[in-house]
Amino acid sequence: MAIHVILCAEAVSLYVNQWIRKITDITDGARAICDLVRRNELDQARARLPVERPYDSAFG
To answer: Is the pTM above the cut of 0.90?
Structure first.
């Protein structure tokens, strides 16, 4: 899977140098969750999902 985003030059600089805080490879965890869902072990799959937090927007 890939995400394609088109940004102007100023936004690219901000994106690369300020906005990105961390990149994490979650492939193994996603595969484990997928396997649990396929086995209909939904409670266990949900328990492995990351905690979602509200996005703290710099734009208000």
So the answer is: no
